[in-house]
Amino acid sequence: MSQEISSRLSRAPIVPLVQAEKPEVAIRITEALVRGGLSVIEVVLRTDAALKCLEAVAKACPDAIVGAGTVLSEAQASSVVNAGARFIVSPGLDDAVVAVAGARKLPVFPGVATASEAQHAWNLGLRQVKFFPASLAGGTAMLSALGSVFRGMQFMPTGGISAKNLADYLALSSVIACGGSWLTPADAVASGDYERISALAREAIAIAQSAKGG
User: Fold this and answer.
1) Catalytic residue status for 42
2) Given 4, 21, 42, 164, which residue is catalytic?
């Protein structure tokens, strides 16, 4: 992981997910998150316009470190890098996606849900991974178990994270950050209520600071 991403996550250990059908909406969401204090942003490949959204956000939001999420294949990994992604996140562990990130010298956070997957990631040389889907894969209890075995490995739990359980995850020493879409609710995006998104970002930072003792 780059020093810049690490530094930002140490101050605000939350990675919000941005999903949009239009580039201009993705930009507005990202700007709202940055105003709220979150600047490591994951644009997910879950719409037909996702690559255009990623490229637009990367160009229009210089204060944000913009990565790509839901990257499923080698081809997608290459495409998001060309679109301006500065890190890659995947729901699962795929060697080819990891290889693209390595060749382009970008941080990559592949998803793991089991000890076998975490061990495979370890043997690929990875020391930061996504834990997904966190709430269904055992939550904080599973993360505690993985962290005790894979010492030195850091996890970014995603899936089922909310303001209600954010502090529980961040209290674990092995958790570097939490990812989630609760910061960008669909109804707020649909109604253009970007101030609500900024407010949710500020709330998450306050929770994180309390959980981390800051």
Assistant:
1) yes
2) 42
